[in-house]
C-alpha cells in the first residue's frame, strides 16, 4: 500500500502536528519542526487505544448453589452480592461486570465474571475479587482470557 501511495504522488512527512488551521477550501497543518503542510482533507487519527473484554471463569465444586440445574444464567448484571463491600460496589459501578452461570449438577457449576469492554481492561485481581464476593467457593479449575476488542 505504501508503494502505491508513493507511485501516486503521496508525500510523507514525519512530525507531530501541533496546530491545525481550517480555512474555507483548505487546512494548514503546523508541525513541531516548523514545517506547514497544506491539505484539502485532514484525517485526525487519535492514538490506538483498544478496549478489552476481561473474563474470569471457574469450574467449581460447591456444597450447593442457588441456580436451577436446568437453566443457564446469561449476562446477569445485578450487583446486590456486593452490598457488604462499599469499595467493591463502587468499582463495579465504574466498570461493571456480569455473571454467566452454567450448572452441571447441584454441586458442580461453571461461573464466569466478565467485564464487557474497558480501557484499560479490568485488572484480573479485581474481577477475581468480584467472583469471590459472589460465592465462598472451592476452586477446582481456573481459566483466564484477555480478549482484545480490536479484531486481532
Automatic annotation (TrEMBL):
Xref: Pfam families: Lycopene_cycl
Classification via PANTHER family: OS02G0190600 PROTEIN (PTHR39757:SF5), PTHR39757
- The name this protein carries in UniProt is Lycopene beta cyclase
Tell me what organism the protein belongs to: Daucus carota subsp. sativus
Amino acid at each position: 500500500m505504501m508503494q502505491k501511495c508513493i507511485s501516486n504522488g503521496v508525500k510523507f512527512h514525519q512530525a507531530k502536528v501541533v496546530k491545525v488551521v481550517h480555512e474555507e477550501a483548505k487546512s494548514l497543518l503546523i508541525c513541531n519542526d516548523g514545517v506547514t503542510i497544506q491539505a484539502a482533507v485532514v484525517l485526525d487519527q487519535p492514538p490506538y487505544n483498544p478496549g478489552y473484554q476481561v473474563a474470569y471463569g471457574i469450574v467449581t465444586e460447591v456444597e450447593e448453589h442457588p441456580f436451577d440445574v436446568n437453566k443457564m444464567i446469561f449476562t446477569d448484571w445485578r450487583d446486590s452480592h456486593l452490598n457488604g463491600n462499599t469499595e467493591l460496589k463502587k468499582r463495579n459501578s465504574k466498570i461493571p461486570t456480569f455473571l454467566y452461570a452454567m450448572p452441571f449438577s447441584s454441586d458442580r457449576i461453571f461461573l464466569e465474571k466478565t467485564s464487557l469492554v474497558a480501557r484499560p481492561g479490568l485488572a484480573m485481581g479485581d474481577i477475581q475479587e468480584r467472583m469471590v464476593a459472589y460465592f465462598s467457593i472451592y476452586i477446582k479449575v481456573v481459566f483466564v482470557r484477555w480478549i482484545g476488542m480490536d479484531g486481532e
